[in-house]
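In response to reviewer comment 3 from the previous cycle, which asked for concrete evidence that the modeling workflow produces usable outputs, we include below a single protein chain processed end to end. The sequence was submitted unchanged, and the resulting structure tokens are shown without manual editing.
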Amino acid sequence: MKADRLVSRKRKGIRALILSLVTLVTLAALAVLLLLMPVLFRHNIDEVVWVNQDAVSSHYDLIVVGAEPEGIAAAVSAARNGARTLLLESASSLGGLWTLGHLNFLDMCYGDDGTLLTRGIFEEFYSAVGGSAFDITEAKNYFIDLVVREPLLTLRTNAVLLAPLMEGNRITGLRMREDGEETIYTAKRFIDATADADLAALAGVPYTYGGEDIGESDRQMGVTLVFELSGVNWPAVFIHLNSQRLIGMVTRKLSGVGATAKSAWGYEQEGYAYVPRDPMMRLRGFNIARQRDGTVLVNALLIFGVDPLDSGSYAEAMDRARSELLFLTPYIRDHFRGFENAAFAGTASRLYVRETRHIIGEYILSIDDVLGNRDQWDKIAIGSYPADVQPSPEQPFGTVIGSPDRYGVPFRCLIPLHVENLLVVGRSASFSSLAASSARVVPLGMACGQAAGAAAAWSIRENLDFRQMSRDPAAIEILQRTLKEQSAYLEDFEGQDPNASHWAYEGLAAMRRLGLMDGGYQNNYRLEEPIDKWRFQYMLNGVIRKAGYAWEYIDVEDPPSCAQVVACVAFAYTSARERQSGAGSDRNYEQNMTILENNGILPVSLAPYFSESAKQPQAAEVAMLLANLYAVLLSFHQ
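The workflow returned the following structure tokens.
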């Protein structure tokens, strides 16, 4: 027996030694490869300067407002499909978030099998700039070249939207300001590709703001100012992060770190350890993209308390972030491997804003659609990015609600209520706030933009409004066929939520719709784990708040027993019913059980899970109980 243990230890030692040697050899090879790479990133690219044409038409088939990547895709697609198109942009260059916001580390949409789901015009860009991290100037030049190559497409930059011209529920034209003068353009169809759905809002389209749809009307998800550093030792960054990645693979403790020739991701512990001077900021792990001149762009600094629709709040956020960077840069030099000689080199000219308006359309994409991996009969794009809710002051570390394989985006999500000849593309399209945490990514937005452009051209040619199109299966089939012929990926699929067969799925889904349960990147909602103090408090108080009741935060024992869970839920129920906090807080376990049973919160099927008062309940039964509580609390408002 003892000899067997000695042999086992020797074998384990040999395996560990072999793995260590493999790791060292691999790292050495990667370092050599990096150092031998051509000097691809060591020369500058001159930016193409676009000058507006002196004379343009005043009437078009289609006007696209906003040269975000989604708007560029829409305008190019429409022109390729035969529509005389005008693209209007308030800035002097194209690309919006990717170029002016310097978000050049792409959030890609791949299926679990590795299939690239966003193809077409996005894939053209992806191939042209060399993958998921790109040079800002190269991207600006690519977009200009892409647009001016289309003979049916006219571009006007420095064109600021003032107001839509309306006839009933139709937009007939746009009043713009160009070079200090007002100009009017008219068209048959319009596409709003502004980041915040500005045209739709001005035209009277209904919308929600932030997390308003789940009872978080005051939620202000953190925005980011991407900053630039020079003097970064890229080989050192590359070796450091990939060594961590390889060690994680060897020890089976995978971590989200790594690096390529142009991008890197990691430094999470170093980021979280930073204590900002501004209490309404925090640093997270780095997403880094290397530029051709050797500088790097860093997406990591989160700024809270910002209303992106308020120009004063927006400008203040920019100033606050730049002031913080004076303190942050020395910290990076002292604590980040490979950044010992880093120097501050500037910031983006725009904030990376993740969420503002969510317009209400013919269909609102839900978190159930996203995490249920649902196909849609009228899909015009397919997404897959995780439902990644970024940090806010109330939730400083953010959360990943879950991670889909793939889901369809219906054409109906682009069609706003109340306005007949308008489509909306981008993060402000008709997505619920939680669904938008996945669907907001730009590659998916470009796929939707391409579909919008093709749909606009077809609707003009056939004299059929968008809303009529959305209710006509034959029209949708033609649109889908057209998109496939133009390299879009729209293959049918069968999907379901990986947790759909769990007995408590109904409770899980209800809590997830409120953003109160997260499964992370593995969709593991820990339903079979005993619920702890902090998780129960978070879910319970979240249900109360989202149902429209503002009481003092309910604190519970650690760990919570069935008796305490039942008592807290009964307390919440009676307090809401009697419109006062603390109503009936002196009841015993049996009385609380009776109250919940008599009022539909604890049905016969669920009661056995709470029959042992001293037992610690699992998350599954608590989710079911709280889902029932939420439904009852909502009924009190009716």
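Residues 159 and 178 are 5 Å apart (CA to CA). We consider this sufficient to address the reviewer's concern, and the full set will be provided in the supplementary archive.
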